[in-house]
Amino acid sequence: MLPQSYYRCWVEVDLDALRHNVAVIRRRIGPQKRLMAVVKADAYGHGLAQVATVLMQCGVDAFAVANLSEALLLRQIGGNGWPILLFGSALPFEIPKMVEQEITPTLSTLAEAELFAAEAIRQRKPCRVQIEVDTGMGRVGLWHEDAADQIRKIATLSPLTIEALYTHFPSADENLELTRQELENFLRVATAVRASGVTVPCLHAANSAALLNLPETILDMVRPGLLLYGIAPSVSGEFRPALAFKARVAFVKSVAAGRSISYGQTFVASKPMRIATVAAGYADGFSRHLSNKAEVLIGGVRCRVVGRITMDQIMVDVSAVPQVKCGDEVVFIGRQADAEITAAEVAGWEDTIPWEVLCGITKTARVPRIYHGAFAA
Asked: Does any domain span residue 7?
């Protein structure tokens, strides 16, 4: 790998910020509650292997991922020391490997449970499962109206052990009253199941937004995603963003009034300007939807993106930064001097959400991840 001084576009991850955020979450939930770290989508673009290693050192209790390849990488990193929950439904061909590697599936139907039970019998291995109760997301899980009866049937499949019931809130950052009703429906299911004699050791419901906005959703365990990485779904100064997205100025030129910039001539200079060409583009994860909208930091000054963002380059008005030169640092997300651009701000310009912004940053040699902090390798 090239030294950082040679990078044209890169991501920096502050592992101390990650550790800080885990500590803040621990203080919020108290010592008796468990913490399941959500590290799907390459740990929200931060790098699964490095982030998971730090979280293991921080003592999180479990992990959640979205697909089997992520789960197997976690097994490789941490051995069998941590429970790993696979969100969503397993594909049939994944079931043997999940049972073999003790990856906990999310069950949404009795039929799924029967497939896992049959495979566990074949391998002569126990199989821990979690069951999702759909209280309003409409994605996977047993509808809450029918869930108790189905869970009782799943509990009779002897190779399976029900590890937990959980639900996922679709609007915990927007509609608190609806979320309270969904919580009530979930707890009604759990109460009915337990009253019938089925052992359910753990209940969990709180994602990042619920953890911040509705303390009553903090049950036996919480499963934060964005909060781990310092992106709060609501205003909170406690958390520290762990990721910065940066590039370099590759060229600077003077542009006369009336000159157009980039494809489609969507920007025409209304006066003489200085334009910097930045060595990154939509192929690196700076979305084309940010054309003529976004700002970046150069020399601690906010500078506007002008013209359409291209695959490999972005043009920026640097008229307010006369000292700018080739090689200068450009910040897309993060701090520079006293200025900051957040992932939420970028999401606003793009008319999307911070999750998509972070996950959209390219994960190839074009955009290497640089790790800083006490746990950096």
From this structure: no
Long-range contacts of 301-308 (CB under 8 A, 24+ apart): 301/339, 302/339, 302/341, 303/276, 306/261, 306/262, 306/267, 306/275, 307/260, 307/261, 307/262, 307/263, 307/266, 307/267, 308/262, 308/263, 308/264, 308/266, 308/267
| Torsion angle of the four alpha carbons 95, 100, 101, 107, in this order, in degrees rounded to the nearest 10 | 30
Our answer to whether residue 263 is catalytic in this structure is yes
Query: Which whole-number Å values give the CA distances from 92 to 17, 115, 126, 128, 278, in the listed order?
Result: 39, 8, 18, 17, 46
Last residue of a domain, one of 200, 229, 258: 229
Contact 305/291 with Cβ under 8 angstroms? yes
Catalytic residue (choose from 153, 253, 263, 325)? 263
The pLDDT tens digits of the residues spanning 142-185 come to 999 999 999 999 999 989 999 999 999 999 988 999 999 999 99
Residues 225, 252: Cα–Cα separation, whole Å: 39
153 is catalytic: no
Does this model's pTM top 0.90? My answer is yes
- 3-class secondary-structure state, position 326: coil
The dihedrals phi and psi of 305, each to the nearest 5 degrees, come to: -70, 130
In whole angstroms, give the CA distance from residue 285 to residue 202: 38
CATH of residue 334's domain is 2.40.37.10
- Pairwise CA distance, residues 258 & 211, whole Å: 52
With contact defined as beta carbons under 8 Å apart, do 26 and 238 qualify?
Answer: no
CATH number at residue 63: 3.20.20.10
Number of domains within the chain? 2
Indicate if 214 and 253 belong to the same structural domain: no
Q: Which domain holds residue 91?
A: 33-229
Choosing from 7, 40, 44, 166, the catalytic residue is 40
